[in-house]
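Hey,
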Amino acid sequence: MLDRIVAQVNNEIITEHDLLVNAFGELQQTEGVSAAEVARLRSVLNSLIDERLMAQAALKELKEVPEEVITNRVEQIVKERKSLFPSEQAFLDALDKRGWDFESYKAYLREQEMRTYAVHAALTRRVRITEDDVRAYGEQLQRSGESLVHYRLRQILVALPPKPSDEEVKKAENRMLKILEQVQQGTPFERVARERSDDKLARATGGDIGWVAEKQLQRPIWETVRSLEKDGVSRPVRTDKGIQLFQLIRKRNVGDLLFEKRLQEVSKTWTAELRRRAQIRILLPQLAKETNAKP
């Protein structure tokens, strides 16, 4: 089942394993796919097809892929993934449930990083931004009342009821202090979020809540995270959800936001052009809808 071919993109195949990994995560076991998740899988497959088309074209453009960069990145990812598990054996067991041994997993990561590097390099060459462009875009954001800074955050939540008693608050504060101590002692924030956060959705992603515009943040949160450095951890913050702890993954200022906007525009135009010339076949009829390809 894991090796069933889902789609063909020119001379390259996308397997069911590829699709499930991209839909549900590298190390998350999936016990079948419900009918309600088919639409999600179609969307993921669409993105996978676009990524494969861009990677195929980008690798033809790229004269040389820096082997050292790819190797270092793979080693870093493996280190990060291992840190999420209580032992190396638990990590290897998670790989086994996804159909990998250690070497095949590293080979998979290497292939992914090669594609990512090539596509990013190709897209970056197609984007041109001047200081005047950045200034004008900042003025445009201000006129429309939009945020000039976006944050990519992880969070850990100790929940409180709407009107907590003093005893409930004290208990939550003590629990959060123990969580903070665990993070400060070196346990990866992502692992602690998976194990101890009361936010079920964020717990499933290691606390990652994605990109948030500064104006979307409650003021106590914004005041706490705005001065954090990359990978920095905040002090505990009391919010309407309870007590929260945040880690800054990345920050985007006006220039970054404009670059990402242009990058998405270029990517959309490029993939549309590549699709027009490509041979794409979806081999599972239930996934063929809205993929711009024939089953």
